[in-house]
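Appendix B. One record, verbatim.
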Amino acid sequence: SSGINAEWSLRPGAESRAQMCRSLSGRFIGDPTYEYEYIDVKVVGEGEEAEEETNTVLVKEEDRLAAVIDEIDREVHIVPRGSYVKTAAGKIVTNRSFEGLNNLDCKKLSSYFHFKSTPNTDKINLLAKATLDQSIDFLENVEHDLPKGCWALHLERGSGLVILKSLLWLGYSFYHVPGTKKYGSTYFGNGEKNIDLPFML
């Protein structure tokens, strides 16, 4: 995705199955009609009378794919600082005066923000919040992502191109050409989250 206003969402009906789809593991088959078996276990009753009740649910690969795309988008879709602004009415719009990050700011993780509708600003301490510009610093900063070191920042062509790679979702790359409005992201991965990352750092 790029700086274009676009909205991606789960296919109709997939929202209710999203959590179920996320618990499935393994690589994708490549057939959207392929059905995975998800075993739903519920505890019925209380105390000594409690019993486990199992229910097998079939989940199509296309629903699982939609859930994985949604999860990747929520966890690692990023934009440069200042590319979007929050109006006084609370609406988030593309910043027409954004001319790109400068050569100094483009090298800092603090210059990149998660682009999601419900940012978590609890990670920012009160002193830092006091110095923020509320019109452009309303999104969650990637500098505070856990585990520390989950982003790899690379400079290409001197500092003519910045590339951020997610180590949590291997295959996700963000690019930005400093001093221009050019930025975007892409994902070429296997659809599996790198849950071993905390042990690798």
